[in-house]
Amino acid sequence: MRTFLAAESDATCKRNAFVFLAHCAMPKAVEWILSVYEQISGLDELLQMSIIEVIRLDCKNESAHRVSKHLDECDVTGMVR
């Protein structure tokens, strides 16, 4: 799925693939967010909204893969708490 996300150029397909990844494997979705962190501002708005939603949902979990642990200095975590 990460290969598909990296190669896909259609914004809607990319967003749908990310949402699917988040629902099936949250740790992998978190890894993907961290791997594209520098490019998030240039991504499609719908994908950005999906990323924010995943971060928000992930912040509610007490699991080891919480994205907020990696983004504590980031403004994104302030928007989702």
If you had to describe this structure to a student in words, what would you say it looks like?
With 81 residues, the protein is mostly helical. It has one domain (2-80). The protein is built from 5 helices and no strands. The longest helix has 15 residues, at 45-59. The radius of gyration is 12 Å and the shape is globular. The N and C termini lie far apart (28 Å).
Number of strands: 0
Give the domain tally. 1
From the alpha carbons, calculate the radius of gyration and give it in angstroms.
12 Å
Content of β-strand: under 5%
Task: Output the number of helix runs.
Answer: 5
Average pLDDT number: 81
How helical, in percent, are the residues? 55-70%
Shape: globular
Question: Helix and strand succession?
Answer: HHHHH
By secondary-structure content and strand pairing, the structural class works out as: mainly alpha
Largest sheet: none
For the terminal residues, how far apart are their CA atoms? 28 Å
Query: Which consecutive residue ranges, at least 5 long each, have pLDDT under 50?
Result: 76-81
